[in-house]
Write a structure and sequence with these properties.
Elements lengths: L10 H37 L10 E5 L5 H10 L6 H10 L9 E5 L5 H10 L5 E5 L5 H11 L4 H9 L1 H7 L13 E5 L5 H15 L2 H9 L4 H14 L6 H13 L7 H8 L36 H8 L8 E4 L7 E4 L2 H17 L3
Antiparallel strand pairs: 1-2, 3-4, 5-6
Length: about 350
Amino acid sequence: MPKKKTIKKTPAKKGFIQKNKAILMMLAVAFFFLLAGSIFFIYHNAFKSNLRFKKPTEFVYIRSNFKFDDVVRYLSSEGLLESEDTFRWMADFMGYTHAIKPGRYKIKPGMSNRELIALLQSGQQEPVRLTFKSIRTRHELASKVSKYLETDSTSIIRYMDSEEFQKTYGLNAENALSLIMPNTYEFYWNTSAEGFMKKMAGYYQDFWDNKRKTQAQKLGLRPDQISVIASIVQQESNKKDEWPTIAGVYLNRLNCGMKLQADPTVKFALGNFGLRRILKEHLSVDSPYNTYKYEGLPPGPIYMANSSCIDAVLEASQHEFIYFCARPDRSGYHDFAKTYSEHLANAAKYHRELNRRGI
């Protein structure tokens, strides 16, 4: 058999192999450091916490007209970002720069850029809880809403004044407050003036079901007119058990063509809600809300009446009382009368007590 030839490695070949091994080793080391650097860069930009907190719970408010640069400026001005550059890089990587979603977002300590941007991209807002009570005018309403929602008070008033509002809800600027009932509601912070009214109208329509509408029709009144009467009744007395009786008095006056002569409407006309005693000089104020001067109902509610008082008007007591006057015993209750002479006697006792107390 022929002998196999053995190939001897020359010194040149050995050197070439060793050199290649060294290069490969250097490339491997370089790749390792490059990979490690990339991992660190991605971690630093994506997963490392990038938020500063001034208090345990923070909210960020992304306005409806914000572009991406506005978002960055806002977060920086609030002192929330540790690094603006890493936030920008991650936002671009995640495609947030052209997909801004307005709203109120609850952020948490330790959130990374990735977590923050994912939250802002999701549109999952933290709702605002808004409680309405003791509101007398639409300007008060607009002012309160603007403190909790993105829309401003001017936009709300302008919408109430608009033809669109009147056509949509059958109400005007004067009686628009009847659309709102005291309660606690949840809204998204970026709700517009139109969106706010639309949501409140939904609750209003739920309240005015067929039963209540039928009750109002039997009284010959619209739901907004019932709200006007309820606003007066609720300002006359804080005794709920008296509300149906007082409501009956005002319905009796309306039915016989008598002026309502309601003291709370005079306070409203004067804009002096803390007035403790109505004097003769007050009764001459020239305002459609002065029910001593003008017949019928005032143009709109003088107070945001609650549902219990509206129901008290719908279920008003049937009686012959035309007059009522506060009792002098400070109980908060009233004395009711069928005749003017009876009323004068009750009023004299009450006025003597006011004089004695220096009111």
